[in-house]
Amino acid sequence: MSAIQASQRFETMSTRLGNRLREHAEETFPPDAQKGLRRFAMREAADLLRINQNTFRHHVSNLEGFPEGILEGGNRRSFTASELVEAQRILLDTGRIRRDDHPHRTDGEACQVVTVFNLKGGSAKTSTVTHLGQLLGLRGYRVLLIDLDSQASLTNLFGITPELAPDMPTSYDLIRAENPLPATEIIRKTNFPTVDLIPASMDIMEYEFEVALSFRSGTTTFHTQLKEALEPVLGNYDIVLIDTPPQLNFSVISSIFASTGVLIPLNASMLDVMSLASFLKMASSLMGVVESHAPEHGLNFVRLLLTRYEPTDGPQVQISSLLRTVLGDSVLPAEFLKSTAVGDAANTQQSIFEVEPKDVNRRTYERAIESVSRITDEIEREIRKAWGRTDGA
Asked: Using an 8 Å Cβ cutoff, are 150 and 204 in contact?
């Protein structure tokens, strides 16, 4: 029996799987559907605004113009994300929160651009960007998420399927060699009122070929392309988070060069730590070449985040201890815990902030929320420090 060519095997498998995934996408989010966002209970709303629940309740009843939400299930009041944004504005305007406690940066404070990357797949880069970006958005920061991964997982989590929208402008169009589009034509609104998205598709792979060809002329400036493309819109945001592919390619280098901070998600395993050591050495060499052309470039912070972490797993605890001993404060004290709540939500293209809490085991849900909140607290602290707000978030 003659062997079947590899190309034919791959094509058959790709077609079958692609067709089924498209069917699934259309069933989950029909092409004309708009992804919604749940309402937030009073306790959640108060936590997001960082005010006491009794104080929040008092404002609802007595502060003129303060959002009242709606009553659900008898005596339970809930609020939309947009109402939280309005509540925060009123608290600032009426002097109930200080200007330094408001998440919007001032004209003298630079938008913070953070690249989230690691050479290894499965390190929860996309999940980190999604949950960190959404919680920062719910806390009132104006956030732009950028997907530079050809797998477009971040894009899919926001209910956008590139295969169903082949003409959709993406991150490739932002940095392509010929006639790049302005960021304003690519940025899309999401179901979170303070979070915008630059989506990705397989087209981003073409960027790597374009840069490689540009070296023939000896005049390539690929490392500045993303930074320059973002400059016209940075004034609209407080924070930019960039999701990158699991390889140190040209788009990642361009991303790091555009960044003021770097976050490296990492599984607590010896193989991942060994990979990280090699990866950091390679990144140092490559960025050294880039920085020789721009010696003023620097980063406000580089932090490691332990992901898929299980505090009862002995080997993971040992690796965590090793990293904290060797790298000290470079490792975030908070870990992104392994959680069925996060995994189950992802199966329906959602985050834990989108699922209804009543549909999830309460203890599992609260552990996941606490984990993401602690991580966000740490990154928020770095951002405020970069702005000169040293009194804590």
From this structure: yes
The mean of the pLDDT values for the chain is 88
SS3 145: strand
Tell me the fold of 40-97.
Multidrug-efflux Transporter Regulator; Chain: A; Domain 2 (1.10.1660)
Where are the strands (E) in 268-371, listed by range? 301-309, 336-337
Phi, psi values for residue 317, rounded to 5°: -65, -40
Amino acid at 69: G
- Residue of 296 and 50 predicted with greater confidence: 50
pLDDT higher than 90, residue 215: no
> Given a cut of 70, is residue 391 above it in pLDDT?
no
Token digits of residue 245: 């592919």
Cα–Cα nearest to 257, from 210, 298, 197, 209:
298
Q: Where are the beta strands (DSSP E) in the chain?
A: 40-41, 70-72, 76-79, 112-116, 143-147, 188-189, 195-198, 239-243, 261-267, 301-309, 336-337
Q: Which of 154-168, 204-218, 313-327 has the lowest mean pLDDT?
A: 204-218
Instruction: Read off the amino acid at residue 146.
Output: I
CATH architecture of 112-386: 3-Layer(aba) Sandwich (3.40)
Listed residue (92, 93, 86, 132) closest to 112, CA to CA: 132
Q: List the structure tokens of 291.
A: 């920085």
DSSP 303: E
Q: Are 232 and 184 in contact (CB under 8 A)?
A: yes
Judge if pTM exceeds 0.70. yes
Domain ranges across the chain: 40-97, 112-386
Residue 201 identity: S
Instruction: Band the pLDDT of 174: cuts 50, 70, 90.
Output: very high
Cα dist from 378 to 219, 271, 304, 388, 392, whole Å: 40, 26, 11, 15, 10
Q: At a CB cut-off of 8 Å and minimum separation 6, what does 138 contact? A: 40, 48, 81, 84, 192, 194, 353
